[in-house]
Specification:
Layout: H1 11-15, H2 22-25, E1 30-34, E2 37-40, E3 45-48, H3 51-54, H4 63-74, H5 87-101, E4 109-112, H6 117-132, E5 136-140, H7 149-154, H8 158-162, E6 171-174, H9 186-195, E7 204-209, E8 212-213, E9 219-220, H10 223-235, E10 239-243, E11 267-270, E12 283-286, H11 306-319, H12 324-344, E13 351-355, E14 358-362, H13 366-379, E15 381-382, E16 384-386, E17 392-395, H14 403-422
Parallel strand pairs: 3-15, 5-6, 5-7, 7-10, 10-11
Antiparallel strand pairs: 1-2, 2-3, 4-12, 8-9, 11-12, 13-14, 14-17, 16-17
Length: 430
């Protein structure tokens, strides 16, 4: 018999899948957003330190992107173009070439994939396997690359891997920088395993990594470690794939997370904030010699979002035409670090993690981190956790957040932390 639709459950509880997640801890019905603020249908407002999980690096409803998109739609601009040539695609590619690729001496081709980061990762892995004729991909502990089967095989999180319902193949897991206790350099371990013909590791098609592991707990690779891994990839005939889906588009200071680290990847995957406006868009940057897919060999009906091309071009021209935005981010990085250090000082054995505008505090307990974030939400701050046990409070505020808004948000987070620590049933980090 059909469910009685007159009961007191919301439409979300009645009809939306149990797979929903963020809304369980933040149950407001949001109705509008601007800059670094979210507002619900009753007019209540929250400071946003989540930014669509780094999909809104330039804030909600940037006025210049919004105006360009409205003009495009009002003028009957192309809404969907498969991979046909369009003026909007040309505009984006020209801006990306001029302001992003050429200043960084990158000759990469741009491949538009399906609109999710996971699809970009799938394409990158396929390219590496086709180029090398090998199957094995080396990925790292605590890495997160998506939940489609290929990307999920490279993802470390046991909960997400458990959702596959089948065996996950083709990936060898290696320890990320800092995974072992003490001063052990995990690059030594990776090198030993690859150099020993009896190490049991098949020759890799690619080495895939994030320079800062967003969902894995803000583990940040050092430049020295990254350079060693890049050299190992080259020496063993493997492609280096850097997943910049969450860590890119300014989140770590430069447009790419690997800037100033002495490494240029063979392949870069991008999504989330690449559209600038929160619109679905993903792409793979690939060196020309590895751009070997035939026409439509990796395709999808929504490869290349025409509306996203409009806003992405504006984002690049507005924020990346010179170094002023990057310089402002360096100042905000210090503000965020200092505020998080004050909060970490309240918690025994807490640790600061991450870099750039992708920082957080490891409080040592998923229960404590969850309690702090829940209390912060009740006080007007949207913030989430990450890490293998959700033990890291992660700040992913829009990069455009004003200093005063940051201070208000951190005041809320500090108050929520103090209350959580004082609660009799909560235990601080041990």
């Amino acid at each position: 018999m059909p469910k009685d639709m007159t009961d007191n459950t919301t439409i979300f509880e009645r009809r939306e899948s149990e797979a929903r997640s963020y809304c369980r801890g933040m149950p407001a019905t949001f109705a509008s957003a601007s800059g670094s603020h979210l507002t619900d249908a009753e007019g209540n407002s929250w400071i946003d330190f989540l930014a669509g999980c780094s999909s809104l690096n330039y804030g909600h409803n940037d006025p210049d992107m919004k105006s360009a998109l409205i003009d495009h739609i009002a003028g009957d601009g192309i809404a969907h173009g498969l991979d046909l040539h369009t003026n909007t695609k040309a505009g984006f590619l020209e801006a990306f070439e001029r302001h992003i690729l050429e200043p960084r001496d990158m000759d990469h081709r741009v491949m538009f994939t399906g609109p999710t980061g996971a699809n970009a990762v799938e394409a990158a892995m396929k390219i590496a396997r086709k180029v090398t004729g090998r199957d094995n991909i080396i990925a790292f502990t605590n890495g997160f690359h998506g939940v489609t089967l290929g990307a999920l095989a490279a993802t470390g999180n046991a909960y997400h891997r458990g959702g596959a319902g089948t065996e996950l193949k083709g990936v060898t897991r290696m320890p990320f920088d800092g995974f072992f206790p003490g001063d052990t350099d995990t690059a030594d371990f990776v090198e030993a395993m690859l150099n020993d013909s009896s190490g049991g590791v098949d020759a890799p098609a690619a080495i895939l990594l994030e320079t800062v592991q967003g969902e894995g707990g803000l583990n940040a690779a050092s430049p020295d470690w990254l350079r060693r891994i890049a050299k190992l990839a080259k020496n063993h005939g493997a492609l280096l794939i850097i997943d910049d889906i969450q860590a890119g588009c300014g989140r770590c200071g430069g447009f790419f997370s690997f800037e100033n680290m002495g490494v240029t990847p063979d392949i870069v995957t991008m999504a989330k904030s690449v559209s600038g406006f929160g619109l679905p868009m993903a792409m793979v940057l690939v060196r020309p010699e590895y751009d070997i897919f035939g026409p439509a060999e990796h395709n999808g009906t929504f490869r290349g979002n025409t509306h996203a091309f409009v806003t992405a071009r504006v984002a690049i021209e507005k924020f990346w035409a010179d170094d002023s935005f990057a310089r402002a981010l360096a100042e905000k990085e210090t503000l965020v670090h200092d505020a998080l250090a004050d909060i970490a000082a309240l918690i025994p054995d807490a640790r600061l993690k991450g870099r750039g505008m992708m920082q957080g505090v490891d409080v040592g307990s998923g229960d404590l981190a969850g309690d702090i974030c829940a209390r912060a939400y009740d006080k007007g701050l949207v913030i989430e956790t990450s890490g293998s046990e959700d033990e890291v409070i992660k700040v992913l505020a829009p990069l455009t957040t004003p200093a005063e808004t940051f201070r208000k948000g951190f005041d809320i987070l500090r108050e929520a932390t103090q209350e959580a620590l004082a609660a009799p049933t909560k235990i601080a980090a041990e």
